[in-house]
Amino acid sequence: MPELRKDPITGRWVIISSDRGKRPTDYGRAPVTASDKGFCPFCYGNEGKTPPEILAYRPEGGPNTPGWTVRVVPNKFPALGIEGELARQGEGVYDRMNGIGAHEVIIETPDHHLSLAALPTKNIEDVLWAFRDRMLDLKKDPRFRYILVFKNHGEQAGASLEHSHSQLIALPIVPRSILEQASGAKQYFDYKERCIYCDIIHQELESKVRVVAENEDFVTLSPYAPRFPFETWIYPKRHEAFFEHSSPRNFENLAKAIKALLTRSDQVLDCPAYNLVIQSAPLRGAHVESFHWHIEFMPRLTRIAGFEWGTGFYINPTPPEEATRYLREVPVEDPVTA
User: Fold this and answer.
1) Same domain, 120 and 255
2) Catalytic residues
3) 225 partner at 20 to 30 Å CA-CA among 20, 140, 197, 267?
4) Is the pTM here over 0.85, yes or no?
5) Are 132 and 251 spatial neighbours (Cβ–Cβ below 8 Å)?
6) Given its phi and psi angles, is residue 58 left (phi above 0), alpha (psi -120 to 50 degrees) or beta?
7) pLDDT per residue over 56-65, tens digit each?
8) Domains contained in the chain, number
């Protein structure tokens, strides 16, 4: 079983995933990718080659058969295990617990050759609904305190299969980075009685300096202090702490915003590898007034090296204002005002 271990100095938790145990020689091999010449378990007709599905949107047919548009299956090599108890324990100055959690794969399309950017907006909306449905189900489990939805696109971003998919991991702890973000937002709210994210959105929409695009419900902008070149965030204009509580209309317009951003990125950056994450509020705690869920999009254009690891500082060679200008100039099919 995987194990969670806590660094006694920083408070950072790590997953020791013994089920994924690797020997030294295993780290040098090339990542597995699927192509026309290889086998892909996510492709249409290969439903029996994945673990049994947890969720599927299927106009016709039975479970684990063709006919689906979106499927959710357990990760075949999960970072955390769904069965068992946390069994928190101490070992001197060290803390650990069983690696309990959920690790699922959202297969975004039956078509092996379509990227998320190439999907029709309605299909992207269906993917968002799958995220919502799984998050609402998993948050019922009292063992879980945070749910992260993320997408690794391309080998450089950590994808081991090229068939378009996202992942979801439910954790029994709140990650340190989320705690820091939630704590900063809470401090701002306690001082000003306003959401800092809402204030950022209001200021950026007034200045228009870093606004890449907007529609009725969402604004896409370059953050003021981005860690990576062309890092871009999507915010709901109305205050919402939890992604999974969004309205049906929100998912329609969010799908448009995501497609527009990926289209712009593909044209400006020549279809880069990227990571995309949904940052939603922790499941337990008083974050409703201060936390504002959002999407963070990070193209993999630079590498994190010794300086970044040693200091926590990021070096970004492209100012966000310049990145915004490049992205904003790209025409898109969906109705987005830039």
Assistant:
1) no
2) 165
3) 267
4) yes
5) yes
6) beta
7) 999 888 899 9
8) 2
